[in-house]
Design brief:
Elements: E1 2-14, E2 20-32, E3 36-40, H1 47-54, E4 62-67, E5 70-71, H2 77-83, E6 84-87, H3 98-108, H4 119-127, H5 144-157, E7 162-166, H6 174-190, E8 194-199, H7 202-208, E9 211-216, E10 219-225, H8 226-231, H9 236-243
Parallel strand pairs: 3-8, 3-9, 6-7, 7-8
Antiparallel strand pairs: 1-2, 1-4, 4-5, 9-10
Helix pairs in contact: 3-5, 4-5
The structure holds adenosine-5'-diphosphate and magnesium ion.
Adenosine-5'-diphosphate binds next to helix 1.
Length: 250
């Protein structure tokens, strides 16, 4: 089943000099339910803009984005964001405990708050490899890696269909990033969740992606299996990016 489909999505913006600039140019992508799609590309290639459009933090100038066959521009953004959760690059912890943070999505939607003994809480804590005795701890006292896991657990607690991740490991050291990568793979497999992640971290991409797309200057130049793209890049642009991936580090 196709979960997400982008059809010829384009975005044009005015730069500070008042000139019109193409940020995304005719991006098309199909993501099957239960798959983990990674989009790689250098800094400024349009990755964040692309992912933000999928939960309507940004709107395309032309083209369509379909979620389960329905054009997302026909969906109420709040309903859409219940189905499509986003985890940001830098984890944001609300004041209070880890449990308070996990309850946040429910509070937003006016839903009854699950308690510490709620199976949904236990399940996301386990999925995100967080010990259950973290629940009463003050979220802001946790390490960055732990906060990133809490932010993931918070996004998953309300049961989204699609998870969007923008550079989820960029503020983490390598071992912590690797562990998060493994967690994302597990979540995709066990939680039968669909994941769309953008990153310039090739190591992470190689470890977790089912499918990979390479975005440069607002265009998808190549897409296919992660194995194919990383080992047999067809374009000079991707070869160059693979040779000097650190160019993309922000
Ligand atoms: P990436 O995430 O791949 O680094 P972005 O999507 O953040 O790329 O940015 C792509 C291009 O769009 C960049 O040239 C950036 O300067 C520009 N851009 C991003 N957001 C805005 C904005 N709100 N207004 C104007 N230009 C923007
Ligand atoms: Mg970005």
């Amino acid at each position: 089943m196709e979960m997400l489909r982008l059809e010829e999505v384009s975005k044009r913006r005015r730069n500070p000099l008042g000139q019109e600039v193409d940020i995304l140019r005719g991006v098309s992508l199909s993501l099957a339910a239960g798959h983990l799609q990674v989009i790689i590309g250098p800094s400024g290639s349009g990755k964040s803009t692309l992912i933000r459009m999928v939960n309507r933090l940004d709107e395309p100038c032309s083209g369509r984005i379909l979620l389960g066959g329905v054009n997302i521009s026909d969906l109420d953004p709040l309903i859409l964001r219940g189905r499509v959760a986003m985890v940001l690059q830098k984890p944001y912890m609300f004041e209070g405990t880890v449990l308070d943070n996990l309850q946040r999505g429910f509070a937003f939607r006016g839903l009854p708050l699950p308690g510490a003994d709620d199976p949904r809480i236990a399940s996301v804590m386990e999925l995100c490899r967080l010990p259950i005795d973290f629940l009463p701890r003050a979220a802001r006292t946790l390490s960055l890696g732990q906060q990133q896991r809490v932010s993931l657990a918070r996004a998953l607690a309300t049961g989204p269909e699609l998870l969007l991740l923008d550079e989820p490991t960029s503020s983490l050291d390598r071992p912590t990033g690797d562990r998060l990568g493994e967690t994302l793979r597990d979540i995709c497999r066990m939680g039968r969740l669909t994941i769309l992640m953008v990153t310039h971290d090739l190591r992470l991409a190689g470890r977790v992606a089912d499918r990979l797309a390479f975005l440069e200057d607002g265009r998808i130049l190549e897409q296919g299996s992660a194995e194919d793209l990383l080992n047999r890049p067809a374009s000079a642009e991707l070869r160059r990016f693979l040779d000097t991936p650190n160019e993309g580090v922000e």
